[in-house]
Amino acid sequence: MEFPRNLTMAQAFFLPLRLTPFHAGLRLVHRIIGAFKTFATVMITAACINTALAVRGKTAPYQSLFPPRGGLVLLLLWDHVVGPLVGLSNTRQSIKLRLLFREPFIEKRVRLDYRYVETPQVWDMVSRTWGSPEDKIMEFWNAVLELANLLISAGSVFVVLAAQVWWAALISVAVTIPLLYLAVQSGKKQYDAEKEVSRYTRKNQFLSRILTSREAALERKLFGFSAGINKDFRKEFDTARKYLFKVEARRFVLIKSVGLAGAAVSSFALFMLIPPVLAGTLSIGLFISLTGALFNMINNLSWSLPWQLSQLSRFREYIKDVNGFFALDEVKDAEALPAETPPDFESLEFRDVSFAYPGTEKKVLDGLSLKIEKGKRYSFVGKNGAGKTTIAKLMTRLYSGYEGEILLNGRDIKTWGMGEIKAAFCAVFQDFAKYQISLGDNIGLGKIRGADEEEIKRAADTIGLSEAAAKLPGGFKTNLGKIKDDGVDLSGGEWQRAAMARGVISPAPLKILDEPTAALDPIGESRLYEKFEEISRGFTTIFISHRLGSTKLADTIFVLDGGKIVESGSHSELMAQAGLYAEMFESQREWYV
Ligand code: ADP
């Protein structure tokens, strides 16, 4: 489904009616009829009391009790049978809406420009829209219907009252108006308070993740920081709690005092109803039922009304977020699968490329030029933070806000479709993902159009993962991680090999392996270098590393410093130059000889 752009409150109200007409219609009819229940309750209760009195005074036959009692039974049925049935339909509606909304929200998120991941405010907004939009819309819906219900109920009580003593009704209305005004104000204040508190909540969520998550469990134990973080957590929690309590207490006092004043004035109005009762112009039944209805109404107006109004303000803010989210820039055909046949890779060229990460000033790349050619092996070296990974991110079009040109086969990469880019490049980054699915599927993701078992085994073998796979209880079918009961965790090095195997199995002609040996021990590292030839055969490869063990195997080494390529050539050429590379290599020599 296409989610409406620039959704307004009115459109949001009609959305459930359009998407789930049966359930929404049912709920609407239920609420409209329900709105007149207050009036019906007043009249039926009055009739019950009046006929009971008449039967006792022998002025009416016993049977006259049946119609009003029948009315009471209907009211009970309405509450206890119709209500739950509609509730059931609401649950079905919620599920239906969830299915309908999930798709446009997920699709939008997939298409989002990667740069937004770097902007906390935007990412916060994206996260806020993520929590069940269907529930948000239904809460809004309920609030609107509840408000209509409240107003119709209150209106009907006033009408009945006005029909008896018009000025008593007038006084009650006069009390209700400031109550309404205060309700709106307090609804707004409550929403503002929640927004303020959400700042603390976000920090608290982060702290609680540190205190409870599996990833942090080891460091938590070793560094023993739980107590300190717990203290911070309590502090933030207390601040938020006190703030909310203050707002809540203020609201309580305000609403309760106005509510009390309302109750006092209503009591006075009711007092004024006594003479008509004595004169016989107002029945005892109506007097009693009106009394109950009036107090009930004051209570509802002072409590339910502000709450429903705050729901409306909350929804208005939510819609702003949703509209903001759908207006974010997208990457064209971001969700495209890698093209079935990858483009024939000829060359990749950076021409005078400069780049700073979104929201930052520092030029990570500053006029960088390099050329990668088919079938060769490349190595990018440079200190930590020199910009090696950044180059790989620009190649794969994760960012597009750079100056200069990046050409794939002589054509600007911005003119290639994302499906072609995905098919042309395969990158395994340093902060690779650990998918909590089977080991085989972890590897198979590298060839999304379908990898068979043989290929998966071959990739694992190439990358030195077969032995570890054989030890797992279910081999390649073993679930990894701890989500499933039978899940098994891998060592850091094994996870890295699984990620690398994705790169190996990928049919992309250009493979980028970023710090592929970071989590391996020195023996594992040198064994992997021995496989370098096998991994690279028939492909163009880029190894990114600040460890220089692999560089001797590369045809060309690019040395990065200050956002530029400062040296390039083979190992022996660069050693002969006695520049930065030679210096780095000398300082690491004892690791590798
Ligand atoms: P290398 O791979 O050479 O270690 P990177 O390309 O990862 O270096 O990073 C180069 C520089 O860019 C570093 O100074 C780093 O702090 C900065 N950097 C990396 N990623 C981001 C980011 N997402 N936002 C802002 N700065 C970043």
Short structural summary:
The chain has helices spanning 9-19, 21-35, 37-56, 66-111, 120-130, 133-164, 166-212, 217-223, 226-271, 274-279, 284-327, 388-395, 418-424, 439-444, 453-462, 466-471, 492-505, 522-536, 571-577, 580-592; strands at residues 347-355, 365-373, 377-381, 403-408, 411-412, 425-428, 510-514, 540-544, 556-561, 564-569. The chain is of the alpha/beta class and 593 residues long.
Q: Tags for this entry?
A:
Rossmann fold; four-stranded antiparallel beta sheet; about 600 residues; ABC transporter transmembrane region fold; alpha/beta; binds adenosine-5'-diphosphate; six-stranded mixed beta sheet
- Ions and ligands: adenosine-5'-diphosphate
Under CATH, the homologous superfamily of the largest domain reads ABC transporter type 1, transmembrane domain
Low-confidence segments, given as residue ranges, are none
The tally of helices reads: 20
Total domain units: 2
Number of separate strands: 10
Note the beta-strand portion: 5-15%
Reading off the top of the CATH hierarchy, the class of the largest domain is best stated as Mainly Alpha
Look at the structure and give the mean pLDDT: 85
Our measurement of the CA-to-CA distance between the termini, rounded to an integer number of angstroms, reads 61 Å
- Examine the coordinates and then state which fold CATH places here, giving the name of the CATH topology of the largest domain: ABC transporter transmembrane region fold
What global shape is seen?
A: elongated
**Relative helix content:** 55-70%
